[in-house]
Amino acid sequence: MDFQGRKILFIGIGFYDYDKLIVEKLENKGAVVNYICQSHRNRVMNQFAKFKSSSHIEKKYSEKYLFLQLDNQANYDYIFVIKGDRLCSQHIDMLKKNNPNATFFLYHWDSIRRVEGGAKIASLFDRVCSFDRLDCNKYSFDFIPLFYRNRIERKATYKYDISFVGWLHFNRLDLLKDIALKMDVVNKSYKFYLFTNLINWLRLNILKRITFIHRKTLAYSEYSEIVSNSNAILDFHHPKQDGLTMRTIEALGANRKIITTNSDIRHYDFYEFKNVFILDDDVEIQSLINFINEDFSPVPESILYQYSIDAWLDKIFSF
């Protein structure tokens, strides 16, 4: 894909610093990029967002904000949107009127059942891609998994047999506590880092003495340091998602073993039983220990590159 001189309007979601990374990569390829975050919030909306009942108000605020941001956006070659859950048909109509020759791309890195109106908004785009293989089969989207940002060479030695970094969601805490107990019994090392809000941190860290609960997220450099010192990366997928998480693909790019609850990983070309362990309710601890002790089987470079951010962008815009 030749991006040289192409004008791209990129509407992202502000997920960590991934939008910034995507802009940098597109610009490095020669594109001229204008970026808009669809999830804009001011201080008032940040207060509203703390309450579940605020979702409708927040969405209406975002819609008005986007009308102002998109009103004069014209003369683009490509309109590239991630997720698009804050866009409405009027936004797309406005963009199409101002950009009659542009190609419209939508990428879902969330499953449709978690995106309000996701299937409806998808019908307004020239091409729709998704990280969720089953969604692609159901809705005829183009299947393009997520990406890793950097390659990390595998070390001969490591500090942690397994590690996990992520938000305190769903049953993650119970799963990690159970795994920690099992690792302690067999004298295996681990590094867990769960981040949450102040109230949960006070309740779990201060009162219940769960030391791997933290208030702050980690910078990417800190996260990379943990990954580079780990033999295997744990991943607990959302029960309403089937696509592989960014954590899983980052572990692939880092040449790390993957321990995941997502059984759909069997359908990917990099799947190798020596490198991937599927964690379910019936797992025996000895099976997990055997997997950790097994030698890592290097993934061919031709496969690894297909999950890089450069390959990800080329695939999306090759239409």
Strand ordering within the main sheet = 2-1-3-4-5-6
Quick one: overall form?
Answer: globular
Radius of gyration: 21 Å
Mean pLDDT, to the nearest integer, reads 89
User: Which class do the helix and strand fractions yield?
Assistant: alpha/beta
Oligomer: single chain
Q: Estimate the helix proportion, in percent.
A: 25-40%
SSE series? EHEHHEHEHEHEEHEHEHEHEEHHH
Number of helices: 13
Secondary structure elements and their pairing?
Layout: E1 7-12, H1 18-28, E2 32-37, H2 43-48, H3 55-70, E3 78-82, H4 89-98, E4 103-108, H5 118-122, E5 127-130, H6 133-139, E6 142-143, E7 160-167, H7 172-185, E8 190-195, H8 198-207, E9 213-214, H9 220-228, E10 230-235, H10 246-253, E11 257-260, E12 276-278, H11 285-293, H12 301-305, H13 309-317
Parallel strand pairs: 1-2, 1-3, 3-4, 4-5, 5-6, 7-8, 7-10, 8-9, 10-11, 11-12
Report on this structure:
With 319 residues, this protein is α/β, with parallel strands linked by helices. The protein contains 13 helices and twelve strands. The strands form two sheets. The protein has a six-stranded parallel beta sheet with strand order 2-1-3-4-5-6, sandwiched between helices.
